[in-house]
Amino acid sequence: MRVFWGALSTSVSPRGLVDSYVVNAYAMKLSKDVKDKVYFLKTWVGIGVEETYQEATKKSFAFANDARPLHKYDLLYFPALYKHHWFVLVVDLNDKSFVFLDSIYGEEDNFYKEVPDLMIPRFIHAWTNFGYTGVDFWDFKVKYPVVPKQTNNRDCGIFAMKCMELWNPRVQMKDLIRPQDIHNIRKQIARDLLLSKHNSTRESIELVYNFNETKHGLYAGQARPFLGICPMKLCFHFF
């Protein structure tokens, strides 16, 4: 998994729209850091224009299943981008529920008149089609926990990443995320990615502390108010 500095700089800058590669990198980091959750993300390496969505989905399920069988996890997290809007679907295997975490829309909004009917049957089809059995998802409830609402149309990706990180059935998200904190949360996400033990590009970590705008270029200048981000490649290599 590689994230270029331009994508990271744009994603964490004030009012920046979060790039899908950044969401993927954050999901991968969380997958390595947290053991009782599993995060599904598209495995970009090797994917070309000829690959079907089914093949990409199969790779995503295989990646998530690599550590242990999927039915032995408590929570399965799916960051989703639909109509230019990020939200998170959580499959809670213990509580037998599909949980939608959304910083704009709620159960009564038109957005959720169609999203569950799009995602849930496709998830069930993928689960059974790829050989996973033993769970009757048709009996699951659909839930919409209260999530703090964003105050603009550009923060949904930030809220989605924090929901992936923080949500579980016992927490109140309103106590963990406040809209006025999003500016600092953007910085925190960048720091978490850059300084993660899973970031194998040591030079990028050094550049956080030894920033030179002239040497490190355009994106470094744009992101300097945040971290001194530089136009290198942020690489996550997992073994």
From TrEMBL:
Keyword Protease in annotation: yes
Presence of keyword Glycoprotein: no
Key words of the record: Hydrolase, Protease, Thiol protease
GO biological process, one term: protein desumoylation
Residue span, Ubiquitin-like protease family profile domain: 1-167
Pfam families registered for this protein in UniProt: Peptidase_C48
Alphabetical list of InterPro entries matching this protein: Papain-like_cys_pep_sf, Peptidase_C48_C
GO molecular function: deSUMOylase activity
Gene Ontology cellular component terms for the protein in this record: nucleus
Family the UniProt entry places it in: Belongs to the peptidase C48 family.
Name under which the protein is recorded: Ubiquitin-like protease family profile domain-containing protein
Lineage summary: Eukaryota, Viridiplantae, Streptophyta, Embryophyta, Tracheophyta
